[in-house]
Description:
- This protein is an all-alpha fold.
- It has a domain at about 1-150 and about 330-360.
- Helix content is about 65%, strand content about 0%.
- The chain has 19 helices and no strands.
- It has helices spanning about 1-20, 35-50, 60-70, 75-80, 85-100, 100-125, 130-135, 140-145, 150-155, 155-165, 170-180, 190-195, 205-215, 220-225, 245-260, 270-285, 295-300, 305-310, 320-345.
- The chain is globular.
- The chain starts with a helix and ends in a 17-residue tail after the last helix.
Amino acid sequence: MLPYYLLVFFPFCIECVRVSLYSGYNNVVKTKKSNISIVVFFVFWGLMLACRSISCGRDLRNYKYFFEIIKNLQFSEMLEYFPTEQLYFSLNWIVTRIYPDFRLLLVITAVLCAGITGWFYKRESEYPLLTILLFITNTCFVMFYSGLRQSLAMLFIIPAYYLTKQKRLIPFIVVVLIAKLFHNSAIIMLLLYPVFHIQLLSKDFLGMMFLVALVFVLKVEIFSMVVPFLNDKYARGGVAETGAYAVWLMFLLYLIYSFLVLDDSKMNKECLGLRNVLVIMTLIQSFASINPLAMRMNYYFIMLFPIIIPKLMNYPKVGNENIVQESKWGMVLLFVIYFFIHINSGYTGLEAFPYVAFWE
């Protein structure tokens, strides 16, 4: 577990040093250097991804099996053999022509995942350490170790997010369709555009909570109605209790916090849109307790979670300023403790824990 300890330790030390130079966490000067902890984190994490053993990630053996098959196929044969998600398998084919070693594919995907995600969080984060901890304790983090196809597809939420902000619908749809060629589940990203632009304010809080409660109570009935229209191996399992309530509860608490503690009259359109994304995340997560497909579909929106909370916390209601300031550090300490307890509790996280390097 040492690599994971260091992954949190280095950014934590950097932020503590920075904060000690100023009067408080909220007064840290926001310059390009202010997000150095994010750079350090993602460089180190990228090295971990690139150097992991194929036993460190539940699905990596299957991906290596596909890679070995593609070695012996011509491009046209590969397209025929893999009729869906063809951009991912085309990447495999290209890598086999450069250097036919699965390790190279892992290195390339590690550079793309850590580099693009790190660039996005560095650019958008308001509070670097909180962003890092929201990322490392959410389910996307472990998915990057296991699901190569979906990990690459998840990266497309970043250009989709910017195109949504700019109200560029056609390029947005093109980006989603390209992402779908890496993983079919990426089609769920089409929800981002309409959800982001809905006008949802504090006066709608009770109606919104009623909807969240209704979906949670009727999740079995709703999912059973939707399953016949799905063509996914996870959905074919139907309804079965998974016990996945913790993430849903976390999203729900943050959603309530964002409406009751924060002031949406001060928020810009971007922050209001991001809070809407938190709503859809909570609704989708309601179904994770009965089928793993919900979590898989929610990964795309959860990628935005580490910037949503820090951005929204800049807009406290009058009288709640101290609550918000104290909650920043409270959340940091809570997530540090949670992460270390979690990884030492026997939790394997798609076999991302414990970390195993390829030379071990």
